[in-house]
């Protein structure tokens, strides 16, 4: 980290959250010599590498990690190898901290490993993870929208319920606004508290939202929080200057593309077109913070839609995962209409409606629509906005919700993708399937649970 970046972080923190104003709970997140905030992510190939970061106070000058193939008994640790960590300082409203990072390399695909982190004397517990397969294989992950507020008290229940329902998930994807103030270190402490030991066992893929950006003065431009890169080891295969905030990861036959909707959207469109044109994977999922089609308020990201959605159409992106609007919306497969600058809905008379037995379809929604991309906007934290009041004929969403904390479980097995959105108490709220077909668009199947009404609340058009 450069001195400029550190200075930016210090000024931003001093402006938003002075150390003297911390509550006892906030102060409890100060760093110590004992490793904490242990987090797995991927900087390289998920089949043969695994990255880990952790935090200590500044009394720990350097870090080290140990790793060994995991075994059924405790003797695995006798075969552990040591890797020196890269260490960088970060000063925040909680004081001076050192962040340490290691990327384990040369691992065997689909293999369980145990690791621990520390300084050679003071250690974390032994964590376990399993590398991904080098070939296409069944994959499951959890996606969540904005956590942002009341992370310890109200968001933690959501992420823990998600783990309860999908304990075999191979990673968690966060679609931005992980916290409310990007340089408030106690908020990051709450975020890690909510995840608990999961962050050290299940890899995390993080997408930056607008709340990960801050400015050091009224007239200065906003910049990505200095907490981002020390905490998340992500690929550096994005456009120059946007490394680790724009990237792609290939995992078990799926290309996951993370975009940064906060800046340089046009440059990313060019990069995205190239990345998708060279995509060897069967499935493609894109994640970014600001939605292509908004669910709440008077929001409309028209420029983003014009720049990115035609690229999704051109390359057959299967699913786009988003946040920002603090409500829920899920479309059918839809495309961009360059002439009308609105959603293009396929009304092919040859389309056959297909609905799973015992399940229903929301009013006016086809069961199967050929072509296009499915767009999802979701929220996992407690901050809520009213739904946008779309005219029925231009509403891009087949299923919506207000005042509802959700998490999504996505499962891919061969030619089928299954999607479930569940509420904070674990109830199924929305579901669909996509099926790959030879020389034809995906088959889209509605699986909305029967007798579960939409939680619409008031829209912005109501008084």
Describe the model.
The protein has 463 residues and is an alpha+beta fold. The protein has 2 domains: 31-130, Purple acid phosphatase-like, N-terminal (Immunoglobulin-like); 139-449, Metallo-dependent phosphatases (Purple Acid Phosphatase, chain A, domain 2), CATH 3.60.21. The protein is 16% helix and 31% strand. It contains 7 helices and 28 strands. The protein has helices at 3-16, 24-27, 151-165, 185-195, 228-231, 265-277, 302-315; strands at 36-41, 50-57, 64-69, 81-84, 86-92, 95-104, 112-118, 127-130, 139-144, 172-174, 204-206, 213-214, 223-224, 247-251, 254-258, 283-287, 319-322, 328-331, 335-337, 342-344, 359-360, 374-377, 397-401, 406-413, 416-423, 428-437, 440-446, 448-449. The radius of gyration is 22 Å and the shape is globular. It starts with a helix and ends in a 14-residue tail after the last strand.
Q: Could you write a compact summary of the structure shown?
A:
This protein has 7 helices and 28 strands. The protein is an alpha+beta fold. It has a 7-stranded mixed sheet, with helices on one face. Strands 14-15-16-17-22-18-23 form a 7-stranded mixed sheet, with helices on one face. A 4-stranded antiparallel sheet has the order 1-2-6-5.
